[in-house]
Amino acid sequence: MIASAPSAEQRRADVPWRSPESYPATGHIRKRAVRANGLDFPVLEAGNGPLVLCLHGFPDHAQNWIPFIDRLAREGYWAVAPALRGYWVGGAAPDGSYRALATGQDVLALIESLGAEHAVLVGHDLGARAAYAAASLDATRVRKLVGLAVPYGKGLTTAFVADGDQQRRSWYMFFFQTRLAEMAIQLNDFAFLDRLWREWSPGYVLAASDRSALNETFGQPGVLTQALAYYRQLFTPPSDPAVQALEALASGPIAVPSLYLHGTEDGCMSAQLSEGMETMFTHGLERVVMPGLGHFLHLEQPDAVLRHVLRFLRS
Description:
Elements: H1 8-13, E1 30-36, E2 39-46, E3 51-55, H2 66-74, E4 78-82, H3 100-113, E5 119-124, H4 126-137, E6 142-148, H5 154-162, H6 164-169, H7 171-175, H8 181-200, H9 208-219, H10 223-232, H11 241-250, E7 258-263, E8 285-290, H12 297-300, H13 302-314
């Protein structure tokens, strides 16, 4: 399905969007730590109602979900954006794992620690991988699933090996395997990350205050190395047979009603990689390709993305 751009009437009908830097540190956006799976996860939350977990990716952090969770809260949901493991001082993985299995287990543990029977999962990039793994591991805890910008299934792994276009887009993953990565990323006030944002979302410019907040996250002791561990463990299978079995389960079919959104101008992941992923979703998948949007589509055109999400949640 190819989505059309929102009409002027639709845009005027929307509640005005506010960028993350316009939100105060206190108020209706609440901050706290939630103990789950051996970690104290910093979370941002708003509203009351059915639980919606919003999971960030790389190079990003939970703060950029603030406008999204604010809008979800005003629509009657309890919206929570946790930091992924490793993205705060003291947040290093207790078991050393930054694999999709571990982050999926974190998501399920967070749902339980928040006192909910189940949750809607909205995941972008690495957050989408965590959402897929959680739904594969225990579909009873996931009411609905929304994936953004990173598809699901074996097609993505195949593309890393056989698709020259995707190999070019994924150059950063291979560079992250080297010992030069930490030094290169931090040079010139994290100019490396600026380059990724420009390449992945052409035409979108992160606000200066948001860029500063993001650099502050990756400048915390240990955080950058922990974030890179997600990629350094990506291509190496676990040696423990028990973990291998769990990873097979965490990458299996998903029995949860799902929505997938991808931008046509995504410079990180080709939208074509999501073609055919419907076979992995036994309870249905709606796939929407959004014209003119890049990798950070929920920041580039948040009203349009939120409309798709709300329509899906209410269906």
